[in-house]
């Protein structure tokens, strides 16, 4: 059915309950378009989501999906993809979900380089729990739990990914529909772990990292002379704390995904009716 | 009986105690003798006392006893550590030429055989073979044909080249000849051989083998004693069957990866021990509410916290039975011996898929690290049946869609089991979630739907109670008024304890229960008995508690929680004492 798939086929009939104007609408639309543009359909797509406003995405999309527990979406996606390489696996979550409770999994998912796409809806705040500091919140950002600001520097997810050996590191802005879609599409097409940090503003709780702020400060790498295969250039930009970049910061085109390295190409759901052929050899070993 | 041998080798961790013990166990098994091994080990890699013990007989052996007949002591401490089990007829083999062993005193009337293990090993080609020299000496003491040792050495070192094998055989000969020439004792032992072909393996290996046999293709885990052997067994083997082992970054990740693979349709599992089960608890509820078939093995060790990582305990029963917030329908299956680790693992995968639930495979350290001999038929691959439950294919999807053609993965059926569509199935795309959901898998807080879904999930357990056989295994005198009940690896010691009790004219009916939940209803049996004793390796009597709850009565308890498994003779004494005691602990 892939030839006739339209992006709306990835829409569920459930109306999102996100606040009007939430950045997650744009993030999700771009994901659905990117999936359709890359020839996927809901029956071969698996979306894994974490907990948070962002994590509700699996509900609003139509595909095979799992809405798991807080911070563990990446391991779930890893299991899905390794068990069935035919599936297009997309993992989505928030900055709290991915860089706080799930930070450990993030680093290891990056280095494991399973061929899937990870989209983080980065609003620099905890939305669903109503406005606490997230790991990407600014040092002086006042919230209900940090009245004087977190007083610790924000994490730099792109730098984490680069240092962990990331093979595809990108950033986009949810409201810039065309660029965002294009970037997610590149992440899907990438052979390996495609990581996209998306600026996805929270209109309810974050009055600092707003649409206006991003619109004014974003530098699009398409307008710059940036070669994403140049790791040094990527490093320089990723570590530049004064700029917000949009585009593919780094891509290792030689990247070999986990399944290829480990020779995994079959669907593990296909098993025989009884013990597999050759199973008696397992017993003979113990004579 | 001189044919029943209790042998041990002990020394410092790092001395190759484990592999030497295993070679001797293999030699005995290859000679058609039954073998049951146990290990004393400390949680460190170098240094620290460690021992490998073998009990062997031409009859089946199911447990350890409080007796040691031949001890290979590589250090003086080895003798001290085993003093309780040594007796006047014990033989101690040691290397009196080594300076540290020069002043060794052989206790009581025991026989000390000073054999220059190191010197003879060097003569045969290298000091590293000193343990093999000791095995040769043990063959002489027990009248055991050394050719059987040869064949175990070939198996162990075959892939390292012919000269390694022949040097080791030579080292064994030197040990044997030294004892024959230097000592003219009449030893009591005369080990028979038979032409039986046994296999020798431990519980972790049996779990791994069961998993592959059952079609498990995905394993994610994080190393932890004593469960790591499951992972090590599967690594390198599961790949040959198209599967994969992933070493996750922690247990939270491991169980979630396994869950992901299961949702993709693979038979999938993880294994861990207490501290890891704690971390995995977070995901138990998600597995249950998303109705994902998943096998989670908990190979118990002494807790709480880091406890005693290398010691026995059955302290996680409550954890697997009740762990996790909210109420979680689940199955808890507890194999009772090494062979059952294989069968129950196969069964666990079928239960998981038939009922789309988490299944806990509750094993324990004693069983996991015990090598035991079996007739190969115990691992009969032809008998393995795979039941994947209600998986719907492309054509069947329509029957399970609603009026708007949406697939209903949590449809509330009469038996509680819903249709399951694996990703890739046409027109069945759906979401699953840890949130309470309706038949479509969508979030709901509707009071009626909430009740419907909770009841639906619990109905699966009711269905399983009716459809599956949860009976206990029965031993001893069926008409006895004395009823002993145990679970897990205590079965072996208790079976043998029955013989000791019989010698004292004490009859006992013994029920060994391999299912914690659902479990057999033993109320009638408990009512009918005068004395009911529940045996388990924990302090509080977790299984006794649930049986008391089921039968609405008090039972006596025999508990052991010093880190060491029950020994058959010791258990017999404890049962006798419990039968005589008036006291029933609340
Ligand atoms: C284990 C656990 N701890 C805490 C929570 C509560 N919780 C729900 S969402 C959330 C934070 C979400 O923040 P983020 O990932 O940034 O997502 P957003 O809502 O901003 O999209 C937290 C802490 C939870 N569900 N589970
Ligand atoms: S709270 Fe913020 S993140 Fe959540 S839906 Fe509203 S705008 Fe979006």
TrEMBL record, chain A:
UniProt protein name: 2-oxoacid:ferredoxin oxidoreductase subunit beta
Cofactor(s) in the UniProt record: thiamine diphosphate; Mg(2+); [4Fe-4S] cluster
Region (Disordered): 130-154
Keywords of this entry: Iron, Iron-sulfur, Magnesium, Metal-binding, Oxidoreductase, Thiamine pyrophosphate
GO BP term, example: sulfur compound biosynthetic process
CDD domains in UniProt: TPP_OGFOR
Domain (Pyruvate ferredoxin oxidoreductase beta subunit C-terminal): residue spans on this chain: 202-262
Signal peptide (residue range): none
Domain Thiamine pyrophosphate enzyme TPP-binding: 51-198
UniProtKB/TrEMBL annotation, chain B:
PANTHER family: 2-OXOGLUTARATE OXIDOREDUCTASE SUBUNIT KORA (PTHR32154:SF20), PYRUVATE-FLAVODOXIN OXIDOREDUCTASE-RELATED (PTHR32154)
Class of this enzyme: oxidoreductase
Organism: Halorussus gelatinilyticus
Keyword Transmembrane: no
Reactions it catalyzes: 2 oxidized [2Fe-2S]-[ferredoxin] + 2-oxoglutarate + CoA = succinyl-CoA + 2 reduced [2Fe-2S]-[ferredoxin] + CO2 + H(+)
Gene Ontology MF, one: 2-oxoglutarate synthase activity
Record has Oxidoreductase as a keyword: yes
Chain positions covered by the region annotation Disordered: 458-483
Alphabetized InterPro entries for the sequence: 2-oxoacid/accept_OxRdtase_asu (IPR022367), Pyruvate:ferred/Flavod_OxRd (IPR050722), Pyrv/ketoisovalerate_OxRed_cat (IPR019752), Pyrv_Fd/Flavodoxin_OxRdtase_N (IPR002880), Pyrv_flavodox_OxRed_cen (IPR002869), THDP-binding (IPR029061), Transketo_C/PFOR_II (IPR009014)
EC number, UniProt record: 1.2.7.3
Record-annotated Pyruvate flavodoxin/ferredoxin oxidoreductase pyrimidine binding domain positions: 210-455
Domain of life of the source: Archaea
This protein's name: 2-oxoglutarate synthase subunit KorA
Alphabetical UniProt keywords: Oxidoreductase
One Pfam short name: POR_N
Residues of the Pyruvate/ketoisovalerate oxidoreductase catalytic domain: 13-175
Gene Ontology BP annotations: organic acid metabolic process; response to oxidative stress; sulfur compound biosynthetic process
């Amino acid at each position: 059915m892939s030839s006739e798939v339209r992006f709306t086929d990835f829409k569920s009939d459930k109306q999102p309950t996100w606040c009007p104007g939430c950045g997650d609408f744009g993030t999700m639309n771009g994901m659905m378009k990117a999936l359709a543009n890359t020839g996927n359909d809901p029956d071969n797509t698996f979306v894994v989501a974490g907990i948070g406003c962002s994590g509700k995405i699996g509900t609003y999309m139509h595909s095979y999906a799992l809405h798991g527990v807080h911070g563990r979406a990446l391991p779930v996606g890893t299991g899905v993809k390794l068990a069935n390489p035919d599936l297009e696996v997309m993992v989505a979550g928030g900055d709290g979900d991915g860089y706080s409770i799930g930070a450990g999994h993030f680093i290891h998912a990056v280095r494991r380089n399973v061929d899937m796409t990870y989209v983080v809806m980065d609003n620099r705040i905890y939305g669903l729990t109503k406005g606490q500091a997230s790991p990407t919140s600014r040092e002086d950002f006042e919230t209900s739990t940090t009245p004087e600001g977190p007083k610790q520097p924000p994490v730099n997810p792109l730098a984490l990914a680069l240092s962990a050996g990331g093979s595809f590191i990108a950033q986009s802005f949810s409201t810039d529909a065309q660029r965002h879609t294009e970037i997610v599409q590149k992440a899907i097409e990438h052979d390996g772990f495609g990581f996209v940090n998306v600026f996805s503003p929270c209109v309810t709780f974050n009055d600092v990292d707003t649409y206006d702020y991003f619109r004014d400060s974003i530098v699009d790498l398409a307008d710059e002379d940036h070669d994403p295969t140049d790791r040094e250039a990527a490093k320089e930009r990723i570590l530049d704390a004064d700029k917000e970049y949009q585009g593919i910061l780094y891509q290792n085109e030689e990247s070999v995904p986990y399944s290829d390295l480990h020779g995994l190409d079959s669907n593990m759901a296909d098993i025989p009716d009884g013990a597999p052929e050759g199973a008696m050899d397992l017993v003979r070993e113990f004579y | 009986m001189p044919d029943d041998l209790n042998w041990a080798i002990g020394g410092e961790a790092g001395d190759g105690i484990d592999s030497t013990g295993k070679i001797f166990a293999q030699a005995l098994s290859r000679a058609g003798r039954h073998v049951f091994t146990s290990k004393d080990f400390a949680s460190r890699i170098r240094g620290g006392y460690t021992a490998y013990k073998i009990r062997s007989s031409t009859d089946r052996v199911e447990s350890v006893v409080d007796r040691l007949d031949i001890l290979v002591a590589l250090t003086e401490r080895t003798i001290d550590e085993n003093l309780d089990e040594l007796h006047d007829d014990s033989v101690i083999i040691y290397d009196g030429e080594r300076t540290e062993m020069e002043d060794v005193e052989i206790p009581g009337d025991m026989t000390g055989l000073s054999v220059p293990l190191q010197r003879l090993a060097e003569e045969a080609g290298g000091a590293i073979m000193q343990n093999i020299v000791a095995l040769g000496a043990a063959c002489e003491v027990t009248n055991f044909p050394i050719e059987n040792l040869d064949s175990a050495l070939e198996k162990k070192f075959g892939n390292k080249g012919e000269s390694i094998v022949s040097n080791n055989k030579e080292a064994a000969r030197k040990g044997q000849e030294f004892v024959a020439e230097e000592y003219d004792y009449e030893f009591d032992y005369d080990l028979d051989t038979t032409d039986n072909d046994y296999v020798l393996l431990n519980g972790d290996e049996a779990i791994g083998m069961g998993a592959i046999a059952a079609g498990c293709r995905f394993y994610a885990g994080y190393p932890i004693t004593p469960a790591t052997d499951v992972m090590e067994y599967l690594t390198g083997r599961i790949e040959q069957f198209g599967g994969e082992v992933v070493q996750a970054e922690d247990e939270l990740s491991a169980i979630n990866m396994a869950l992901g693979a299961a949702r993709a349709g693979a038979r999938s599992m993880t294994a861990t021990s207490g501290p890891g089960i704690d971390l995995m608890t977070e995901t138990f509820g998600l597995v249950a509410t998303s109705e994902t078939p998943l096998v989670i093995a908990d190979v118990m060790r002494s807790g709480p916290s880091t406890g005693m990582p290398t010691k026995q305990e059955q302290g996680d029963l409550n954890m697997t039975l009740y762990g996790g917030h909210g109420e979680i329908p689940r199955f808890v299956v507890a194999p009772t011996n090494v062979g059952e680790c294989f069968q129950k693992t196969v069964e666990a995968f079928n239960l998981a898929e038939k009922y789309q639930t988490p299944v806990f495979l509750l094993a324990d350290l004693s069983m996991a690290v015990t090598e035991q001999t079996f007739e190969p038929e115990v691992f009969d691959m032809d008998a393995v049946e795979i039941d994947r439950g209600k998986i719907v294919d492309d054509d069947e999807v329509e029957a399970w869609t609603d009026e708007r053609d949406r697939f209903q993965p949590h449809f509330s059926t009469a038996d509680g089991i819903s249709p399951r569509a694996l990703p890739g199935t046409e027109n069945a795309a759906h979401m699953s979630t840890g949130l309470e959901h309706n038949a479509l898998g969508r979030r709901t807080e509707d009071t009626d739907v909430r009740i419907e879904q909770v009841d639906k999930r619990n109905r699966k357990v009711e269905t399983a109670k009716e459809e599956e056989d949860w009976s206990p295994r029965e031993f001893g005198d069926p008409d006895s008024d004395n009823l002993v009940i145990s679970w897990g690896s205590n079965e072996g010691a208790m079976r043998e304890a029955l013989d000791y009790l019989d010698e004292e004219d004490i009859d006992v009916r013994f029920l060994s229960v391999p299912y914690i939940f659902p479990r057999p209803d033993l109320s009638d049996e408990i009512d009918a008995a005068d004395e009911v004793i529940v045996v388990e390796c924990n302090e509080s009597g977790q299984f006794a508690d649930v049986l008391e709850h089921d039968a609405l009565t008090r039972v006596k308890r025999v508990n052991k929680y010093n880190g060491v498994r029950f020994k058959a003779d010791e258990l017999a004494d404890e049962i006798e004492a419990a039968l005589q005691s008036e006291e029933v602990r609340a």
